């Protein structure tokens, strides 16, 4: 593994953790009222496109980052569909 690939994996890690605070906060509060369903849909779609690209070019960092982001975003999507709005 060369230094460029290490930089890629570092970027992959940092990208992957961006949604962790939001998922945790949403889970704890059982509230996702302020999250836009359109934003979640766009992130899921763009992540799927990036995954196709990552597999096409056989790039581990791209695949890892986008797989994790997809999983976290799908959790938010699930929360958006299941958590009831607070009045």
UniProtKB/TrEMBL annotation:
It is found in: Membrane. Keywords: Membrane, Transmembrane, Transmembrane helix. It comes from the Bacteria. It is a multi-pass membrane protein. The chain crosses the membrane at residues 6-24, 36-56, 62-81. The keyword Transmembrane helix applies. Pfam families: PQ-loop. GO terms for cellular component: membrane. This is MtN3 and saliva related transmembrane protein.
């Amino acid at each position: 593994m060369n230094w460029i690939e290490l930089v890629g994996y570092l970027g992959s890690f940092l990208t992957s953790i961006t949604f962790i605070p939001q998922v945790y906060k949403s889970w704890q509060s059982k509230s996702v009222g302020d999250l836009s369903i359109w934003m979640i849909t766009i992130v899921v779609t763009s992540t799927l496109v990036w995954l196709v690209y990552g597999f096409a070019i056989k790039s581990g960092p791209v695949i890892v980052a986008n797989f994790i982001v997809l999983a976290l975003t799908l959790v938010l999507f699930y929360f958006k569909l299941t958590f009831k709005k607070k009045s």
